[in-house]
Amino acid sequence: MLLFSLVLVAFYFPLSLLAQRPVVDTADIGRYVTKEMRADRVPGLGIVVVTRDSVLYAQGFGSTGRKGESVTADTPFLLGSMSKSVTALAIMQLVEAGRVHLDSPVVRYLPDFVVEGTGAAKITVRHLLAHTSGIPASAPRAHGSGRSLASHIVALHDVELASEPGATHEYSSPNYQVLGRLVEVVSGEPFAAYVQRNVFGPLGMRRSFADSLGARASGLARGHQMIFGMPLARDLPFEGDRLPAAALVSTAGDMGRFLQAQLREGELNGARVASIAAFREMHKPQVQSEGFAYAMGWRVNPFAGGTAVHHGGILPNYRGKMVLLPELGVAVVVLTNVSSVIGAPTSHRVADGVAGLMAGRAPAEPRWSLVWFLSAVALGMVAITALQIRGLLRARRGPRQVRGAMKELVFAGLLLLGPPLLLNFEWVEILRQTPDVGSWMLISAALGAVTAAYNARGIRQSS
């Protein structure tokens, strides 16, 4: 009996300690969030911390941007790429129903799924879930007012795969557009209706939406963009054709319920949305990438001596992140109504910081404030523009060297052609994502071209 007791203490006691979450003063969470929001000028933020069985913390901070309304844990935000986790769950439900097989070719379910060459026949459902299909992030998308998931499939017909299916991981939202269309074809109903009926409904996510009308009626937080270091409200068109990859809407409170279902491996308040095996498969790493592993709609990293299963969402005017700590049985979601292409997202840093607090680790101090960083970038742009204006005035007053004209032309060409080539974005999308930097680049390119023209005129006159 004594030996049995010693063995029990030696093995059970440490495991029980591991399963217990650290005791965290919720006031510490509030102070930390307030400090980070103030440093980065975040207009509004919703946060929820849950365990398998309870809500530890649910709070809203700041403004929705609509008539001075305050953010609460029930304020809707656009989820961005966190939508992919919902899409992955929808696929796994169809897998469990025997209607989809993870390792079957996608063309088995979508005969009109075509890419250049014979690559489409090799791409499986698992490849799409893990972003190993070879479809590049720069793959073309459908345009026009009548865009749909079906039209996005057609837009892929001429795409050239970046790699052999299954070979490498390239994070590419078109993968999840294809998965969304697969859900529609196999289930026989629109993706929005399927998710509402099979995910949001069973989990009690009553303020989660796959349409803009319902979201706005429930007080959707107004999106903001950081313009030269200042958050300015900017409403962008709702992209109903991108629901599976980036456009679902939810609240911190509802996402807390979604995360509880993840921690409980599919069950919440008597409703089961998928089996334990399905959730374990979704959270299991499928492929290694740079600094993380990708599962199915989730990333996986070592974290505070354990594992973090997480995913972020980034849109031009919203950002958020959710983090699961399975060993501790704790999860965090942070949603914000602001975005900036430049600099680290506040939402991601806060979500990781609060997850660290729950694991007994103090949040890392940022190396610099996002606002100060963006302000420094703005000052740099102003300085360059001032130098360009001075060069233009000098060019107007007299001839300069041929090299001066060539330098201005090269500079203008780099500004006009470089960003689309490097970012794989058209100028329309660059201006949508980052209107301040994009506008500055176009103005600088124009100043460079005009200066070059005056230089060339001076050269002709002098010759």
Task: Show the helix and strand layout.
Elements: H1 2-19, H2 26-40, E1 44-51, E2 55-62, E3 76-78, H3 83-96, H4 125-130, H5 149-155, H6 174-187, H7 191-200, H8 212-217, E4 224-227, E5 230-233, H9 243-247, E6 249-251, H10 252-263, E7 267-268, E8 271-272, H11 276-283, E9 287-288, E10 293-294, E11 299-303, E12 306-314, E13 319-325, E14 330-336, H12 346-358, H13 370-397, H14 402-423, H15 427-433, H16 435-462
Antiparallel strand pairs: 1-2, 1-14, 3-6, 4-5, 7-8, 9-10, 10-11, 11-12, 12-13, 13-14
Structure description:
With 463 residues, the chain is α+β, with helices and mostly antiparallel strands. The protein folds into 2 domains: 19-358, DD-peptidase/beta-lactamase superfamily (Beta-lactamase); 370-462. It has 16 helices and 14 strands. The chain has helices at 2-19, 26-40, 83-96, 125-130, 149-155, 174-187, 191-200, 212-217, 243-247, 252-263, 276-283, 346-358, 370-397, 402-423, 427-433, 435-462, and strands spanning 44-51, 55-62, 76-78, 224-227, 230-233, 249-251, 267-268, 271-272, 287-288, 293-294, 299-303, 306-314, 319-325, 330-336. It has an 8-stranded antiparallel β-sheet with strand order 2-1-14-13-12-11-10-9, sandwiched between helices. Strands 3-6 form a two-stranded antiparallel sheet. A two-stranded antiparallel ribbon has the order 4-5. A hairpin with a 4-residue loop joins strand 13 (319-325) and strand 14 (330-336). The chain starts with a helix and ends with a helix. The model is unreliable at 1-21 (pLDDT under 50).
